[in-house]
């Protein structure tokens, strides 16, 4: 029992550290190695896949050198890389540290697989604890936080992991069983589905925010992380308990597929049931592959007649498990690259999570039922209750609901900021919430319009960037989905926002979806101002003329004669055809007196593509594009004098 508890605990801790590294490495592909929408997606995908293909050679190394030395060395390298990333160095140093940690983690998994025929309890605990911690930390992991507490907790985690790995790994019976191949093959697909859907705190909160608002838009929710403990409990309990027999075993694969299909429908109001179904289904699928029924169950009493043949068979079984986990992690990479590359290349990607879920369902359901299943290393109810209790802290500690009020209105002026925040990542590839907050707060804004808002993409680390920034600024938000339900545009305001509406824009060949989000600011005493946030996506080789015309038409109709502000990353220069669509609609360039006012790229601005347009009744003043490298764009800000009452 002690062996199994130590092995399970060490595996879970290693999985947590590997996921931490992945949440740094994945964003580095599109923020450090390349730039989304400028570096060819094929090149970034090849860089990402190459390391997982390289890990396919690890089983051969394990077979030649031995599992234990490979596992120990890889564990130390993974621990060192994870600890060093706590310094968030940014730039190429950060990318290559994360890459080294990823490769070490993949090799470590192969080494562990060689000696572990029952990985399900450790994998399930690792996924669940990581999700609970991610939620408690408000989706900003220790690796991004810095400070003495982050260093202390990270150091404790890596030391415990290395010590657990260094302990003698010999079972009491001295034999490793025949099982585990299916479970190890499922590790990669399960990691992808857990990070994208089943155990994503950011996705759960985003789903809650859509339920609050309805009509295809999202608002700041109350206790947005409340579904996370439910998902964690459902996942862990089904993963650690014995699955039913007969056709009732199909409930897990069916639930997983149903959750993946709901997620793939790209509807915000379906995100929450997608999370809960996928969590229960994924846990049940892992349980179906937990085929440990005793050491070498297929060989009867072969251990009594140990021979050279037995040693050879054991080596072959270890190699199969190693290749299984390496192949499973390659599926993780293929799924992640295949899904997120679509937003640059423009092909449909809804089938990717469904195909991965289908593969997991087939692997799980085809597993042979175990008649005499050994008890797990930890009591399922106690383990699920303990991790769920940790996750229950998230709605209490991490949820912060800003409140807007118009009791001091109506004001004479409004300060407006528009900012493309690049999913929260600065030019150096660091997740830079402090930098974003500082440059926005410096303008003392009344309303903030955001572009490239990411709320749950695994590719970007699974952060809810919008909720995090809204909490730091103390401003409630309204969110309009563009590329999918968790990537789009937002409006944050100190004044109450009424009548939110989102209009999808025609793609006309652009690979990434676009929309226009309109809200009405209630400034008190019947004074209203319409605000529209958008991010135009130009088709290859052309300007976003069609989308600009659609936004101008939608905005003027929505405003219905009230004062109007239209702002965002419009991807058009003054004088271009798309730019004139706004001026032809009767809107005024709020920066006309300050031109040229370049905003991109942030470190050497040459392009004037971020704009604020206003209706004639609003008088702009103090236009500025404050310098900052917290994104690849500069924010733009202007103070608007409202028309006299």
Question: What order do the helices and strands come in, and which of them pair?
Answer:
Layout lengths: L1 H32 L7 H14 L3 H8 L1 H19 L5 H25 L4 H17 L5 H4 L1 H20 L14 H18 L2 H13 L4 E2 L7 H14 L10 H14 L6 H18 L19 H33 L1 H4 L5 H15 L14 H18 L15 E8 L12 H9 L5 E8 L10 H9 L3 E8 L2 E7 L3 E8 L10 E8 L5 E8 L9 H15 L4 E6 L7 H8 L3 E2 L20 E5 L4 E6 L11 E6 L4
Parallel strand pairs: 2-3, 8-9
Antiparallel strand pairs: 1-4, 2-13, 3-5, 4-5, 6-7, 7-8, 9-11, 10-11, 12-13
Task: Give an overview of the whole structure.
It is a single chain. A hairpin with a 2-residue loop joins strand 4 (477-484) and strand 5 (487-493). The chain has helices spanning 2-33, 41-54, 58-65, 67-85, 91-115, 120-136, 142-145, 147-166, 181-198, 201-213, 227-240, 251-264, 271-288, 308-340, 342-345, 351-365, 380-397, 433-441, 465-473, 545-559, 577-584; strands at residues 218-219, 413-420, 447-454, 477-484, 487-493, 497-504, 515-522, 528-535, 564-569, 588-589, 610-614, 619-624, 636-641. Helix 4 (67-85) runs antiparallel to helix 8 (147-166) and helix 11 runs antiparallel to helix 17 (380-397). The chain has a seven-stranded mixed β-sheet with strand order 1-4-5-3-2-13-12. The protein has a six-stranded mixed β-sheet with strand order 6-7-8-9-11-10, with helices on one face. With 645 residues, the chain is of the alpha+beta class. The longest helix is centred in the middle third of the chain and has 33 residues, at 308-340.
């Amino acid at each position: 029992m002690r062996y199994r508890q130590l092995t399970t605990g060490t595996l879970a801790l290693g999985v947590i550290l590997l996921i931490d590294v992945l949440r740094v490495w994945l964003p580095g592909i599109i923020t450090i190695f390349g730039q989304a929408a400028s570096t060819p997606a094929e090149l970034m995908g090849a860089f990402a896949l190459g390391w997982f293909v390289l890990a396919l050679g690890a089983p051969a190394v394990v077979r030649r050198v031995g599992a234990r030395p490979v596992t120990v060395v890889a564990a130390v390298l993974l621990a060192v890389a994870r600890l060093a990333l706590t310094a968030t160095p940014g730039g190429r140093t950060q990318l290559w540290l994360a890459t080294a940690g990823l490769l070490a983690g993949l090799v470590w998994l192969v080494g562990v697989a060689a000696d572990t025929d029952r990985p399900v309890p450790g994998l399930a605990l690792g996924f669940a604890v990581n999700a609970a911690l991610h939620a408690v930390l408000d989706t900003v992991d220790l690796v991004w936080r810095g400070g003495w507490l982050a260093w202390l907790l990270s150091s404790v985690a890596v030391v415990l992991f290395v010590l657990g790995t260094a302990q003698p790994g010999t079972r009491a019976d001295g034999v490793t069983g025949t099982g585990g191949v299916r479970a190890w093959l499922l590790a990669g697909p399960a990691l992808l589905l857990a990070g994208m859907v089943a155990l994503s705190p950011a996705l759960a909160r985003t789903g809650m925010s859509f339920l609050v608002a309805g009509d295809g838009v999202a608002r700041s929710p109350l206790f947005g992380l409340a579904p996370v403990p439910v998902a964690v409990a459902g996942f862990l309990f089904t993963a650690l308990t014995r699955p039913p027999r007969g056709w009732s075993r199909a409930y897990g694969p069916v639930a997983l597929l149903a959750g993946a299909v709901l997620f793939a429908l790209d509807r915000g109001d379906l995100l929450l049931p997608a999370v809960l179904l996928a969590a229960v289904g994924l846990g049940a699928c892992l349980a179906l592959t937990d085929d440990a029924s005793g050491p070498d169950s297929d060989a009867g009493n072969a251990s009594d007649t140990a021979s050279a043949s037995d040693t050879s068979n054991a080596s072959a079984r270890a190699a199969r498990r190693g290749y299984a986990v390496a192949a499973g992690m390659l599926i993780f990479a293929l799924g992640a690259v295949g899904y997120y590359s679509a937003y640059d290349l423009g092909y449909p990607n809804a089938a990717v999570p469904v195909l991965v879920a289908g593969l997991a369902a087939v692997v799980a359901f085809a597993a042979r039922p175990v008649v005499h299943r050994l008890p797990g290393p930890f009591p399922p109810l106690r383990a699920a209750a303990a991790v769920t209790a940790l996750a229950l802290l998230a709605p209490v500690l991490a949820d912060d609901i800003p409140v807007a009020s118009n009791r001091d209105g109506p004001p004479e002026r409004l300060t407006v900021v528009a900012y493309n925040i690049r999913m929260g990542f600065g030019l150096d590839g660091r997740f830079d919430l402090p930098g974003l907050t500082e440059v926005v707060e410096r303008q003392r804004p009344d309303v903030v319009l955001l572009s490239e808002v990411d709320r749950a993409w695994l590719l970007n680390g699974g952060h809810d960037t919008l909720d995090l920034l809204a909490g730091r600024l103390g401003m409630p938000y309204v969110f309009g989905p563009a590329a999918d339900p968790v990537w789009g545009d937002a409006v944050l305001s100190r004044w109450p926002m009424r009548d939110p509406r989102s209009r999808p824009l025609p793609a006309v060949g652009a690979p990434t979806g676009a929309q226009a989000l309109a809200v009405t600011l209630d400034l008190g005493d019947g004074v209203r101002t319409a605000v529209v946030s958008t991010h135009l996506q130009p088709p290859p080789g052309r300007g976003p003329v069609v989308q600009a015309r659609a936004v101008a038409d939608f905005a003027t109709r929505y405003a219905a004669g009230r004062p109007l502000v239209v702002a965002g990353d419009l991807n058009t220069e003054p004088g271009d055809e798309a730019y004139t669509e706004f001026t032809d609609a009767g809107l005024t360039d709020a920066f006309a007196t300050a031109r040229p006012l370049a905003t991109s790229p942030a470190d050497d601005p040459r392009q004037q593509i971020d704009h604020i347009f206003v209706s004639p009744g609003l008088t702009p003043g103090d236009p500025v594009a404050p310098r900052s490298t917290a994104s690849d764009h500069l924010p733009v800000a202007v103070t608007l004098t409202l028309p006299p009452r």
